[in-house]
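To whoever is on call:

I kicked off a structure prediction for a single chain this morning and the downstream step that reads the tokens threw a length-mismatch warning. I double-checked the sequence; it's 96 residues and nothing unusual in it as far as I can see. Pasting both halves so you can look.
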Amino acid sequence: MNGKKIDEHIDELYEILLKLKTKADCKALLEDLCTFKEVEQMALRAYAAKLFMEGKTYIEIIEETKLSSATISRVSRAVTHGSGGYKTFVGDGNEL
């Protein structure tokens, strides 16, 4: 599939996500769309981002989440240099 078509499908996914209104909606979609392991990994990345924003170190985050150092590094880069998604949605004071 070419890049343009993939971009269209990604845009469609964004539109689907915008339709979610409740936690139950989100849970149902993620259960259908992703494996449990994929959801678990996304949850742990969001939690790692929260820990970074709380000032935790790499070592503390690795010990807490059991994520790889490569994953922790990607989360750290996204928190500090990303598009702001973590800071907007994870850093808003909600408990994860």
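Update from on-call: the warning came from a stale cache, not from the record. Cleared it. Sanity check on the structure: The chain has a mean pLDDT of 93.
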